[in-house]
Design a protein that fits this description.
single chain, alpha/beta, DNA primase DNAg catalytic core, N-terminal domain, Dna Topoisomerase Vi A Subunit, Chain: A, domain 2, 2 domains, five-stranded mixed β-sheet, four-stranded antiparallel β-sheet, 9 helices
Length: about 290
């Protein structure tokens, strides 16, 4: 009698996982440029600046990733373990706009997707993989960041002219490891820009304690909007103005000290001895950001 006991495969090495993520992200980015669905969705959500698409390596899954694979082989098991393929072999992100998560040093760490059509599962993530912070590279250039709840909200803030924005994508939210990383890059000040409803206020309230090492304030998006829906309804100038003089729902918390004036939200570029510059999105130069912006 034959022994049908399945031999377990070794866990996917982290280097191999990163390589596969990079290849998938490249394919998805190419799809965004070559198929209309992804770009149409981004424009419908008010993200009309194609330079932002390239800078953040946005992509689109047309559901044809498996057609690029060999008919058989270990790659299928690897992609299932990574989560790019579901256990049944179907592509997890099919029909999604892709939002890569890249750490402060430029390494791809995760991929999120958002369905272009209304579904119960709006956001899709890789199961069991650490999420990370969207646009974490901003930590190398700014001592003050605007913190939002998703990559789509982050892109909306960039459409309003602010590059110093970081998103908290995925279901896990901000954790103590993320806070330690923020501290390690010398972050001083955080502006929370969350939904203007009870859920947004609750989420912001929970973060106030976690973010106590920083000078932290909360700006509330009015009329039950989130930053992206506010962008769609009122335009980028109105969203920018909200960051300048929008209603603060709580006084600033954290160390009692004067905030550096160049690290306050401003739609103009402001030089700073801290290397903190708020720039218009059109002023961004393509390529990796270092501690000083060009």
């Amino acid at each position: 009698m034959q022994n049908h006991t399945q031999v377990s495969r070794p866990a996917l090495a982290s280097e191999r996982a990163v390589l596969l993520l990079e290849r998938a992200a490249t394919i998805y980015q190419k799809n965004l440029a070559e198929t209309p669905e992804g770009g149409a969705y981004l424009k419908m959500r008010g993200i009309t600046d194609a330079a932002l698409w390239g800078r953040h390596r946005l992509g689109y899954s047309n559901g044809k990733l498996t057609g690029l694979l060999p008919r058989h082989g270990a790659i299928w098991d690897e992609l299932k373990e990574l989560g790019l393929l579901r256990p049944d072999g179907q592509e997890r992100f099919a029909g999604c706009v892709i939002f890569p998560v890249i750490d402060a040093e430029g390494n791809l760490t995760a991929i999120y997707g958002r369905h272009t059509e209304e579904k119960d599962e709006s956001y899709v993530c890789l199961p069991g993989r650490p999420g990370g912070l969207w646009n974490a590279v901003a930590l190398k250039a700014y001592a003050h960041i605007v913190l939002v709840r998703s990559s789509l909200d982050g892109l909306s803030v960039e459409m309003a002219g602010y590059q110093n924005v970081i998103g908290i994508p995925g279901p896990t939210g901000l954790n103590t490891g993320d806070v330690a990383m923020l501290t390690s890059y010398g972050l001083q000040r955080i502006t929370l820009l969350f939904n203007g409803n009870e859920a947004g206020r609750t989420a912001a309230g929970k973060l106030q304690t976690l973010l106590s090492p920083f000078n932290c304030e909360q700006r509330e998006v009015p009329q039950d909007h989130e930053p992206n829906s506010y962008l769609i309804a009122h335009g980028p100038e109105a969203l920018a103005q909200l960051l300048v003089d929008g209603r603060r729902t709580q006084p600033a918390t954290g160390p009692v000290q004067a905030a550096h004036p160049a690290c306050s939200p401003s739609p103009e570029a402001l030089p700073s001895s801290l290397g903190c510059v708020i720039m218009k999105s059109g002023d961004w130069r393509k390529g990796r950001v270092n501690s000083r912006l060009p």
